[in-house]
Design goal:
This protein has about 950 residues and is α+β, with helices and mostly antiparallel strands. The strands form 8 sheets. Strands 2-1-3-4-5 form a 5-stranded parallel β-sheet, with helices on both faces. Strands 7-6-10-9-8 form a 5-stranded antiparallel β-sheet, with helices on both faces. Strands 12-11-15-14-13 form a 5-stranded antiparallel β-sheet. Helix 5 (about 110-150) crosses helix 11 and helix 30 (about 840-850) packs parallel to helix 31 (about 875-895). The protein is elongated and about 155 Å long.
């Protein structure tokens, strides 16, 4: 099952935090979302992308970018639903968007369900708009088709009296159809009309006529037959007729419509000569056609069907015909259409069915089952036919109106070629009205080549009349059209020439079709002569009738020594000859039983043997065949080389020092080498094709290896080429293995190389255990150092308590505080995983708290710390700790006399590859005289030791700034 791709939304918003939040909400609803913050980039994105389904556009994009203008630029490239976003709900802002789009307006901050509902409504409105546009286009196509049919009608109507056996009426169009004027045709009489039927069609016509008019009365009967034209040639006609009953319900008359289908029959005859010509006719026939199978699946439709119904090829091909019927058949007509299809499928001969669609009357016919099990359904627009039949039953005035509206151009000229009359259809044919064309010189004003008019006059002077004279006329819009004219000379009462009278019909499409046929014939010959494959056409007696240049090169003979002179058997190796002769004969008895493709050996005129891959088939409606010969000699040699290479690589595989296996997509071991046999403890016979590779894997490792196995075949970029696993040997022992796996190009198989790393893994585990023991020892060392420092501090405190001199006591107290800063550092080292670095922030917080515990003044001191949470080397941090201890203890002791309230600020940060330390208090701003020497000296010594620089101010509070290059 193909996974449906979710809708993609382009979110245009310069407020990225809000846009990111909206993106997360929309993606949680199943949409794909792309954010763009700039209007110009949004327009460019639309020009380069075709997968954006909807735009959420912020009205105000900042920097003077107006979202409504950007939306207009997007809509110039592609019609897409746009919903505007804004934090404003003022009427003026909303009204600004109404002239651009009608798909919605959403306030920013709207809940996800409301936003989702607006987006879904926009998609529904956009789809409704698209469907409406398609409906309008279909209606326009239908209107064009109806206009075309009306303007290009080529048939004549009649009324036949069953009781008298004579025609009561035929329309003037009869002259174009069979050469007789209406009066001439009526005067022929029943016997002459019957005599002019082709001998092969006469009996069939009589039987069909009797069944239709006497035994089985029904409406809408159609029969085709050949009838002798006035010019002496037989034409094919399609006779579509209906039965009229008298008040007692008995057959009285037949009204019908006759169309010359000679061209159609000729085309159908050519259709049997090749599939390409069939497609051309199928696509150009004026009747709508669709092909279905017994499952009512629509296999193909022609363009006329699309023009007639408005249903495109993409909408219906491959879908069920019932869906098609429901789409354009009126619900009242649907049952009879389905019944007609059902009757045909059951082998019955269903009657024609008419339906109404878009104010048209369509005639539906279901053809008999074809050899391939398909049925052809024909739709014919008989709206005009029905109107004509009704008109024939009305007044003569209506009859005259029909004559005036015929698409045939009826014209008269005087003896100088000046047009004196043109029927109203002249406007439909060449674009001029009757009034505009009267008075024009036919030769000079309308003929493309005046000499064609001169040729027409010469033939008229010689024969009195012409039939089907072809010429080119200039239309009003400047384009050129072909006409076929039936004309005769008009004489005055004295028998003098006074002008020309005639009928002209548009044959442009026929001329274009003839030109296409000629081009196709040339194209086929060009393909045959210039294809890269040797090709020949072979007669029933095996003679080569036609050969191209490639075949000439293959057999090393010029074409004039091959065509009509050589048989294909002369170039076939003796061992292959009898079998190929059998195929040659079988192909002409039953082509399906003969092989179309096979190999044989060809011997050319130089006695060189070439291996050939042959493709051969019968040319339709002949006993000739066409064969294509592909020289595969090099391929045969390559196969031999491949076999040699396969043996070479198999030797490498079998004798490789690394255990190797070839694994199929279903996890079977297709091939293994001796090293893998040694690694697993199983024999080759037990391994190859017997087990999945999972049989040898420790259960805990199977899942991760299965994932890699699938990824390697579905998404190879994400699969690991190498990894470790545990292999379970036949003796139940477990080995650690390092595997390298690659896919074999052009297959779903992979090749795996395995190395036993059990000894290495054992050594790694032993080293890991030694490292753990080392870490424990190091922790113990740190712990003991900390305890020793604490013991030193305690000894100093005891000594302090035993002394009376204040200076000595003060010096020892300062020494204990400095030692305390080192104790804090080792305490942090003991707690840390890294025994060389410590987090600066936590160290300074704990150090300052320990210092403050000693002094009662701490309650009046506000300390602000701004320390980056960085890891620092223990040596550097120890020095900064002693400096901090020195500065803070001096601040507490001397900066705020009389317990005044004070502030301290400590900053530590990284800046431009430097460590910047900043200390400040707002106290009295000096060190006491007795402490200035050692305190400042200690700070300077430590900074110099760190290769740093220090700047200090001590007159207005105390301020120290230390910069240390980290590169030092």
């Amino acid at each position: 099952m193909i996974e449906q791709v979710s809708k993609k939304i382009l979110l245009v918003d310069d407020e990225l935090l809000i846009a990111q939040s909206e993106k997360m909400e929309l993606e949680s609803l199943g949409y794909r979302v792309e954010i763009i913050s700039d209007g110009d980039k949004a327009v460019k994105c639309f020009q380069q992308s075709n997968d954006i389904d909807l735009v959420l556009m912020d009205i105000d994009l900042g920097a003077g970018n107006d979202g409504t203008i950007i939306a207009q630029a997007i809509l110039e490239n592609k019609d897409v639903p746009i919903i505007f976003l804004s934090s404003h709900s003022e009427p003026a802002v909303v009204e600004k968007t109404e002239g651009i789009t009608s798909y919605g307006y959403i306030l920013k901050g709207t809940s996800a369900p409301v936003m989702n509902a607006s987006i879904k409504m926009a998609f529904k409105l956009f789809e409704a708009k698209r469907v409406n546009q398609q409906s309008e286009q279909a209606l326009q196509k239908s209107e064009r088709l109806l206009r075309y049919v009306i303007e290009n009608r080529r048939d004549f109507a009649y009324k036949f009296n069953i009781r008298s056996g004579w025609y009561d009426y035929v329309s003037p169009g009869v002259k174009e159809i069979n050469g007789f004027s209406a009066q001439e045709f009526l005067n022929l009489g029943p016997k002459e009309i019957a005599r002019r039927f082709h001998s092969d069609d006469r009996e069939q016509y009589v039987n069909h006529f009797n069944a239709f008019s006497l035994k089985y009365p029904k409406q809408d009967d159609i029969i085709e037959y050949r009838w002798l034209h006035k010019d002496g040639s037989y034409h094919w006609y399609s006779d579509s007729r209906n039965l009229l009953l008298d008040p007692q319900g008995k057959p009285e008359s037949i009204v019908g419509n006759v169309r010359d289908i000679t061209d159609k029959k000729e085309i159908l005859d050519k259709l049997r000569k090749g599939e390409e010509e069939f497609r051309n006719i199928f696509n150009n026939i004026v009747d709508g056609l669709l092909v279905v199978n017994k499952n009512l699946e629509v296999l193909k439709i022609n363009p006329a069907f699309t023009e007639m119904t408005g249903i495109s090829n993409e909408e219906i091909v491959g879908k069920n015909g019932i869906f098609l019927a429901k789409k354009f058949v009126n619900f009242r007509d649907l049952p009879k259409v389905l019944r007609m299809m059902s009757d045909r499928f059951r082998g019955k001969n269903p009657e024609l069915t008419e339906i109404t669609y878009n104010q048209k009357i369509l005639e539906i016919r279901v053809g008999k089952e074809q050899k391939n099990g398909e049925y052809i359904v024909t739709l014919r627009d008989i709206t005009n036919k029905r109107r004509t039949e009704l008109s024939l039953l009305e007044t003569q005035e209506n009859f005259n109106r029909i004559v005036e509206s015929t698409p045939l151009l009826i014209y008269k000229t005087d003896k100088h070629g000046i047009i004196t009359y043109a029927s109203p259809s002249v406007e439909k044919v060449i674009g001029y009205t009757s009034e505009e064309v009267v008075g024009k010189n036919l030769a000079m004003d309308l003929y493309v080549n005046p000499e064609e008019r001169t040729l027409l006059i010469n033939r008229l002077n010689k024969f009195g009349s012409v039939q089907g004279f072809e010429a080119r006329l200039k239309k009003r819009d400047g384009s050129v059209m072909w006409i076929a004219s039936d004309a005769h000379i008009m004489l005055d009462e004295k028998g003098n020439y006074k002008g020309v009278e005639g009928l002209a019909r548009n044959i442009t499409k026929q001329k274009v079709s003839e030109e296409i046929l000629r081009e196709k014939e040339n194209a086929y010959r060009t393909i045959f002569e210039n294809t890269g494959t040797a090709s020949v056409i072979i007669d029933d007696d095996r003679t080569i009738l036609l050969a191209n240049n490639e075949f000439s090169n293959l057999v090393k003979l010029p074409k004039n020594e091959i065509e009509g002179k050589r048989k294909w058997t002369e170039f076939t190796m003796h061992e292959d000859l009898e079998w190929m002769k059998e195929q040659h004969e079988l192909r002409r008895v039953d082509e399906k039983k003969a092989r179309q493709h096979y190999e044989f050996r060809l011997v050319n005129s130089l006695n060189e043997i070439r291996y050939i891959y042959l493709t051969v088939g019968i040319i339709p409606n002949t006993r000739q065949s066409i064969a294509s010969l592909l020289d595969i000699t090099e391929l045969k040699n390559s196969e031999k080389n491949l076999q040699e290479k396969e043996n070479y690589y198999r030797t490498i595989f079998e004798n490789n020092a690394t255990a190797m296996a070839i694994v199929s997509s279903d996890m079977r071991l297709l091939s293994v080498n001796n090293q893998l046999v040694d690694l697993t403890g199983y024999s080759k016979r037990e391994l190859e094709g017997q087990f999945d590779w999972t049989h040898f894997i420790v259960p805990e490792d199977i899942e991760k290896m299965m994932i890699q196995h699938q990824l390697r075949r579905t998404n190879p970029d994400q699969a690991l080429p190498q990894y470790e696993f545990r292999l379970k040997r036949k003796d139940k022992s477990v080995r650690d293995v390092f595997v390298t796996i690659e896919m074999i190009p052009g297959t779903q198989n992979s090749i795996a190389s395995m190395i036993d790393i059990s000894d290495r893994k054992k050594a790694e585990n032993e080293n890991r255990q030694l490292l753990i023991e080392k870490e424990l020892i190091l922790k113990e060392v740190h712990h003991r150092i900390k305890n020793n420092l604490a013991m030193v501090k305690s000894l100093l405190n005891i000594q302090i308590n035993s002394l009376n001199a204040n200076n000595v006591e003060s010096a020892l107290v300062d020494a204990t505080e400095r030692i305390d800063s080192i104790i804090v550092l080792y305490d942090k080292l003991f707690q840390s995983r890294d025994y060389q670095k410590v987090k600066a922030k936590s160290y300074f917080i704990e150090l300052i708290n320990d210092i403050l515990k000693i002094f009662p003044i701490k309650e009046n001191l506000d300390i602000d710390l701004f320390i980056d949470d960085i890891e620092m080397d223990t040596k550097l941090l120890s020095s900064l700790g002693i400096i901090t201890n020195e500065l803070l203890t001096n601040t507490i002791k001397y900066a705020f006399p009389d317990n005044k309230r004070g502030e301290v600020r400590l900053n530590l940060k990284l800046q431009d590859h430097k460590l910047v330390y900043f200390y400040h208090d707002n106290g009295v701003g000096y060190f006491p005289q007795e402490n200035q020497g050692f305190g400042l000296t200690l700070i300077k010594i430590l900074v110099e030791q760190l290769h740093g620089q220090v700047a200090s101010i001590t007159d207005k509070g105390v301020e120290f700034k230390i910069e240390i290059e980290l590169g030092q």
